[in-house]
Amino acid sequence: MTQDPSVQKAVGGRKKTVSFSSIPSEKKVSSAADCLSFMQCGCELRKVRPGSRLYCRFYTLDVEHACLRWEPSKKDADRARLDIAAIREVRAGKSTDTFRHNGPAEHLAEEAAFSVIHGDEYESLDLVALSADVANIWVTGLRYLLSHPAALGGGVGAGEGAEGSPGNLMRAAWLAAEFGAGDEDGYGIVPEDVAVETICRLCPRIKEAKVRLRFKEIQRSKEKLTSHVTLEEFQEAYCELCTRPDVYFLLVQLSKDRECLDAQDLRLFLETEQGLSQATAESCLDIVRRFEPSDVGQERGLLGLDGFTRYLQSSECQLFDPEHQHVCQDMSLPLPHYYISASYRSYLLEDQVHGRADLGGLLRALQVGCRCLELGVTDGLDGEPLLGVEHNPGPPHHHHHPPAPATLRSALELVLAQHLRKVLGPRLYVPDVQHRGRPCAPLPTPEQLKGRVLLVGKKLPPEEEGSEGEVSEDEEEIGGGGPLAGRRMTIPGEEELGVVLVVPPPPQPRRLRLRRELSDLVGAARTGSRSFYAHRAQQTQGSPPTTPSGPALPDPPFWTLCSLGEGEAGRLTNEVPEELVGFTKRTLTRVRPSSVRLDSSNPNPQGYWRGGCQLVALNQQTPGVMLDLHRGRFAQNGGCGYVLRPAVMREEVSYFSTQGCVPGVPPQTLRVKVIGAHGLPKPQGSGSKGEVIDPYVVLELHGVPADCAEQRTRTAAQNQDDPLFDETFEFQVNMPELALLRFVVLDDDYIGDDFIGQYSVAFECLQPGYRNVPLLDVSGELLPHASLFVHVAVTNRRGGGKAHRRGLSVRRGVRRGREYVNLRNIGVRALDDTFRPAGAPLREAADLREDTQNATVNFKEQCGLPPVAKLKQCIQSLTTRLQTSEGPPGASLAMREGYPCLEPLGNLPDNTRKLLSAYDTMVSAHRQLIENADSVQEKIAQVQREGMEFHEELPRLVEKEGLKGRKQSKAVESFAWNITVLKGQCDLLRGAKMDALDTLRQLALACEAFGLTAPPDPPSAPQKTSDHGAHAVHARRGSTQGNGRI
C-alpha cells in the first residue's frame, strides 16, 4: 500500500483524506492452511529486477504445492516456474542487493517486500506485494513449505498437515476443554449465551455484539433453526474473531511454522528482538507457565498462539521501560540539575474566573507526581488564612473584588507562620540562619528533600533587622515579556467576538510589609526576570542592560527561584537560549501560564524545557496535548516528579545549540513500525449509531527544533476496531533526553472531535522490540483493552534503555570521503596551541568506530538481514548456509589470541566463503578498535584536561587578546564547543570499545549455541595472548550475567 506523502509533514496541522479507491478487506489468516489456500488462488506481485525495472506478474502456487508459477512471461509455461525444492530461504523486507541498489525500490514499502533465495548460487527472486498482509501470507506459506518437505506434492494432504501442527492441536484441545465445561449434559452442544460468554471470557477485548453476530451468520449459512452451538462452530467463531493476524505471522516466523514456541525459540525471541539479554531457559518456561492456557502446552513447555498473544498484551511487553517504574536516576545533585513537575493554581477546579478553590485539586496534583504546588492564601474568618485567590476563595460567601491584589495582614502572617511550624514541624526544610548574608551554598538535592517541604516566597533581605520589613512585589506579566503599556491582548477563545484587553501602564513595584517569622521559613526567595539580567550582566562583565522591570540587580545572598511569565520566558528561549541555559545551571527557574489564559489552558512546556527552565507550571485540571506531554515527561524515573536534565545543561563547560545538536555526536535513529491496533472504541460523543470507525495513527516527536516531526499511517477504512497498518516510520533524534514520542489514534470518518486515544512516552523510556502501547483517553485514564501493537528499534543509542549502540549513521565511502568533526579556532594563541594536537586522535577515533560499524553492517547484509538485526540472528543464518548433507557444518569456531574466528572446513560455495570473509573482516575491525581505543582515548582526554586548565583564566585571556563584543562571545562559545567535542568523542570511543567486547562475546556464545564449536586445543606451550584478547576469552567463558548483554 502506498502512503499519501502530504501527510508526512512536520508538526503544524493535520489534513483528513478521502479515498474513492476500493481497498480490499484485511485477510483473516489463522493457520498455514489459510496461507496455502490464498497462494493457490494467486495474486498480483511486482517483480523487481536490476536496472531499475519493475514487472507486474500474477503468481500462483500449483495445486501440488511443488512450484511457483507466474504469468505473463516471455518464457515457456514450463520455464515460468520456480520449484519449491530449489528454494534456500525466504527473506522478509528489502534485504538483497537488488533492493539495496535499485533506485525505484527505495520508494517501495519495506513491509510489502520479500525475496525468495534459490539455487546453488543463491539467486534472488525479489517481489513486492500490494500490501504488507499479502506479503506476510506469501512469506509464511513459503516458509511452511520449506520446513515441511512432506507437504510438497501433497495436494489436500498438505493443508490437513498444516491444520495438524502442534500449535493447532494444542489450541483445539484447549477450546474443546473450555467448550466441554459449558456442555453440562454432554450432548456436544451449548446454548448460544454460554458460547458467547465463554469466548468473551477467553478473549476480553472482543465485544459481545460481535460474537453474537458471528454466531447468527454461522446459523444462517447452515440454515439452522436452533441457536445452540456445536464444538466445531465454537472453534470456528473463536479462531476467526480472536486470532490476531499480526501475532500469528510473528509466531510462525519464530517457530519455524510449528505454530508454537518452545523454550529455545522463546529465548531467541527475547534476546534478539526484546533486548532481554539475561533470558534463560528457566525464565522462558516460567512465561509458558504464566501465559499458556492449554494443559498440553503447559506439560510440554510450549507457548501456543493464544499464550503468545496474552504474553504480548501483558505488562511485561509494554512500551514503557520497567526500569523507569522506579527511581533510577542520580538523586544526589542540586535541584537546578532536574526538571521538576509543577502545577499552577491546581486548587481551582475550573477556569481562572469561575473556578472554585478546593483542596481536592491539590491532592490530585500530588498524586500525579507534582512536586511544586502554588497556594493562594487570603484573609479568612476569625483571623485564619483561607485557601483561594482574591476573586474566588473557597467558601462562596467570601467572594470579593478588592481594588488591588490582596495581601495578608501582619497578624495573619504570624498565624500562618505558626501553623506552618506546627503542622509541618521537622518536615519543613529551613536553611541555616547563620548563612544569612553570606554567598549561598548549592541548593539541596532531591535526596535531602525526601519527606521535606521547601517553601518559596518573598524573603526579607539579610540586612533587614526587626520583626518585619519591606519587600518589593514584581508585577504579574500578561501575555508576553517586556513593557505591556497600551498593549492590546486578545483573550483566548474570544477572538471571533472581538474581545480585547488593553493593559494600562504598570505602576512602580509596590512595597509590601513582611513578618520576620514568615520570612525565616522561606527556603528560596521568589524573584522575577531581573535576576536573569543580573546574571547576564555579570557574565558579560559590562554594564547591566535595561530590563522590562527596571535595572538588573546583584545576585541575592540566599537561594532563589526565578519566576518568569509565559511570554517573557518564550522571548528569552527564542532570543538568548544559550544564556538562559547557562543561568539555569545554578538557579531554579519557573514558568507560569500567562494571565490571559482565563480558561486555564496550558502553554507548550516543551519549548521551555529545551530552554533549560526546570519548573513549567501547568493547570493540572485542564486536560489536553500539553498535559499529555507533561505526564509523559514525568512518568520516567519512577514518576517521582524529578527528571535529570541533559548533561549539556548541567556541566559547567558545555556547548548548547538552539537546534539541540551535540557537536561530534551523530543523531540517533528511531524506527517505529505501527503494526496494528486493537479494541479501539468510538470517539467520545459519536453517539450510538454505527460501530464502524476509520482509524489512523499519528506519531508526533516532540523535542528540540531539529527533532520535531509528525507522521501518520494510512486510514484503515471500514475496519472496525482491530485495524492492521504495517507501516514503518523513521525519526532523527539529536537530543534524546528531551524527546517525547506521542501516539494519537484518530477517526477519519467522524466529523467533530475525532480523538480516540493517545499515549505519550519519553524517548529514554522506550523499550526495543515488539511492544504493546496502552491507550489513554482525553483525561489520561486507561481505555479498557485498547492498545497499539508496534515494533521499536533505536540505532546509535548513546544512553538509557536496553538497546545496544549499533551506530547505523555510518558513511559507506572510503576514509578520504569521511567528514570528521573539527575543533574551532578560538583566537587565543595559548588555547589554540593546546587544542591543536587533538586533530589526529579525533580522526583516528572516528576511523576506528566507523570501520567497525561498516564491517558489522556489511556482515549483516551478507547474511540477508537488516542492519538492526542482532548478531545471534546472523550466526543462525550463517549456520543454515554452512549445513552440509554429510553432517558437520562447513566451519568451526577457533579462538585466535582470544578472538572468535571461523575456520572453513572442506569445499564451500563461493557465496558461503564470501560470507565467512565478511565475518573475518568484522572480527578484525573489532580487534583493531579494542586494541587501540584506550591509547587514542587517552590522547583526546589529555587535551581536554589541558584545555580545562584555562577555564578560570578564559575571561582574562580573551580580554588580553583584545577580543570584545561578538568576538568575545564567539571565543567563549568556541572554547565550550571544543571541550564538548573532546568529551563527547571520549565517551563515544569508550562506549564503542564496550560494544566491541560485547560483540565478541555475542559471537562466541552464538557460535557455541548453534553448534559451530571448536575442537579441543592440543597440549602445547602457552599461547601468547594480548590483554585485550584475554578480555575476549574471559567474556566468552564468563557468565551471561556479566554486563547484561548477550
UniProtKB/TrEMBL annotation:
Q: Where in the cell is it found?
A: Cytoplasm
What does the record give as EC number?
3.1.4.11
Catalytic activity as recorded in UniProt? a 1,2-diacyl-sn-glycero-3-phospho-(1D-myo-inositol-4,5-bisphosphate) + H2O = 1D-myo-inositol 1,4,5-trisphosphate + a 1,2-diacyl-sn-glycerol + H(+)
Q: Domain PI-PLC Y-box: where? A: 558-650
Entry superkingdom: Eukaryota
Q: Which PANTHER family match?
A: INACTIVE PHOSPHOLIPASE C-LIKE PROTEIN 1, PHOSPHOINOSITIDE-SPECIFIC PHOSPHOLIPASE C FAMILY PROTEIN
Q: What is this protein called?
A: Phosphoinositide phospholipase C
Q: What is the lineage of its organism?
A: Eukaryota, Metazoa, Chordata, Craniata, Vertebrata
